[in-house]
């Protein structure tokens, strides 16, 4: 076999469906023996948030952001037909029926397959998210680290 | 057809059949044959594309009663 190929994905979206697409591609690419990186920025960071409450020191605006944003992958809304939270409930039912993996399961599977999950530190600051609020075993970096992975990448997506 | 290992991926949805196939093939020796059973309609295209990319040989595939079966020889 030739040398290892690389897949890099920027997850900008905080939508459940879009994050699912990103994580399905990431898991598929890992099965293709690619080195896979998902760079989470802006709303995509919410996919890495812990579901439970974490007490951290924050300013007023940051607290507001933390309240308004979904707390973890399972709480994210749909990009279409969200219907104030009805849509995600419905789609999760359908997913169960078809035995599709949920987003939290896909994230766990990605970690199991050594997909590199990266949180963008600049947008963490903007959204007031701290390391303690994000899941374990992820990396923290900026655009240069992402480009370092992406410049010799074979598949590169922005979702 | 003879196989060294049978992977039951029936009922699993994308991307699991490929993720499991990859895991199963990692546990085999070069030249061993992996038999995969799947019900995901995309599995046929997925498994053959995946095998080709990794250099593994797709020996045979069948479909009966909605169950797709593949035989892959590890390269």
UniProtKB/TrEMBL annotation, chain A:
Signal peptide range: none
Pfam families (UniProt xref): DrsE_2 (PF13686)
Protein name in the entry: Peroxiredoxin family protein
SUPFAM superfamilies: DsrEFH-like
Naturally occurring in which organism (per UniProt): Terribacillus saccharophilus
Listed InterPro entries: DsrE2-like, DsrEFH-like
TrEMBL record, chain B:
Superkingdom: Bacteria
Domain (UPF0033): residue spans on this chain: 7-31
PROSITE patterns assigned: UPF0033 (PS01148)
InterPro entries: TusA-like, TusA-like_sf
Pfam families found in the cross-reference section: TusA (PF01206)
Sequence similarity: Belongs to the sulfur carrier protein TusA family.
Protein name: UPF0033 domain-containing protein
Organism: Terribacillus saccharophilus
């Amino acid at each position: 076999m030739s040398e290892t190929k690389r897949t890099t994905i920027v997850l900008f979206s905080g939508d459940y469906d879009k994050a699912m697409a990103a994580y399905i591609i990431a898991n598929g690419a890992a099965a293709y023996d690619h080195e896979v990186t998902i760079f989470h920025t802006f709303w995509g960071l919410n996919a890495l948030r812990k579901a439970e409450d974490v007490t951290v020191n924050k300013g007023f605006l940051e607290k507001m952001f933390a309240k308004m944003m979904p707390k973890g992958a399972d709480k994210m809304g749909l990009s279409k037909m969200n219907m104030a939270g009805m849509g995600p409930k419905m789609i999760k039912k359908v997913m169960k029926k078809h035995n599709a993996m949920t987003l939290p399961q896909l994230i766990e599977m990605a970690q199991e397959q050594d997909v590199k999950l990266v949180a963008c530190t600049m947008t963490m600051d903007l959204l007031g998210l701290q390391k303690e609020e994000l899941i374990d075993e992820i990396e923290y970096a900026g655009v240069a680290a992402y480009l370092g992975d992406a410049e010799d990448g074979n598949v590169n997506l922005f979702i | 057809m003879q196989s060294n290992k049978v992977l039951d991926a029936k009922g699993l949805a994308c991307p699991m059949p490929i993720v499991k196939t990859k895991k199963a093939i990692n546990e085999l020796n070069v030249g061993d044959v992996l038999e995969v059973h799947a019900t995901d309609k995309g599995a046929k295209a997925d498994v053959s594309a995946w095998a080709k990319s990794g250099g593994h040989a797709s020996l045979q595939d069948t479909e009966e009663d909605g169950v797709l079966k593949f035989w892959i020889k590890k390269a």
